[in-house]
Structure formats: structure tokens, C-alpha cells
Amino acid sequence: MNDPTFQFGWQEIGSVRSFTNPAKRYHIVMNMKGHMGCTCPAWKHTPYANPDGSIPPCKHIKGLLSESLEHEGFDATLFGLTWLAKRIAANL
Ligand SMILES: [Zn+2]
Predict the structure, then answer these.
(1) In 3-state terms, what secondary structure has residue 77?
(2) d(CA 91, CA 7)
(3) Residue 91 alpha carbon to ligand 1 centre in Å
(4) Chain segment 64-79, per-residue pLDDT in tens
(5) At residue 57, does pLDDT exceed 90?
(6) Dist. CA 37 → ligand 1 center (Å)
(7) 67 Cβ partners below 8 Å, 6+ apart?
(8) How far is the CA of 88 from the centre of ligand 1 (A)?
(9) Selection from 39, 41, 19, 20 nearest residue 28 by Cα
(10) Which of 12, 16, 14, 13 is nearest to 73 (CA)?
(11) What are the sequence ranges of the domains in the chain?
């Protein structure tokens, strides 16, 4: 099982609301290689990895990358805000 909360080197980008249970929040994290992880069951139970060692993104990571943040009640950490600012700057 993939569990970023039990591994070193992960930094939290922010948390999102669960689509199925609004009372629940999942935490989206990033490691030093830039790989992203999530604390949702779907991501944790992904049975395979990409050739670069990253785990394919779950719907929360995909939502974050497609900038549909407001719909999920995205709450960024300071690290997450810096990462978002870099992303926005890179797209300009
Ligand atoms: Zn997820």
C-alpha cells in the first residue's frame, strides 16, 4: 500500500474535500522528485507505479492539476501556495 503519511520527504500541498463525503478531507502531498501523492483510499491502493516510480494520480490530484480547485474546497499550505505560484508563473 502506498501511504505518503508514513514516508519521509513528502510535503503537503493542501487538502481537498472528499467528493463522496464532504465531512472528510484528503491531503495532497509532493516528494522531492516532484511526484504527487494523496491520502485517499484510491491513491493508496493503486496497485502499480509509472516507470519513473511515481504513482498515477487520483481524481483529487487530477482536479488540482486541472485547476478545478474551488469545487473541491481546496485549502493550500504555505508550501502549496508557493508551488501554485511557480506553476502559474511557468504557464505565463
Ligand atoms: Zn486522492
Answers:
(1) coil
(2) 31
(3) 24
(4) 888 765 666 889 999 9
(5) yes
(6) 7
(7) none
(8) 22
(9) 39
(10) 16
(11) 4-91
Distance 92 CA to ligand 1 centre (A): 28
Separation of CA 47 and ligand 1 centre (Å): 14
Q: Give the global pTM.
A: 0.84
- The cell numbers describing 4, all together, are 505518503
| Cα gap 30→28, rounded to integer Å | 7
The CA 30 to ligand 1 mean position distance, Å, reads 13
d(CA 56, CA 32): 17
Distance 52 CA to ligand 1 centre (A): 19
Beginning with the edge strand found earlier in the chain, give each strand of the sheet holding 25-30 in spatial order: 36-38, 25-30, 11-17, 75-76
Instruction: Report the separation in Å between the CA atom of 50 and the middle of ligand 1, taken as the mean of its atom positions.
Output: 17
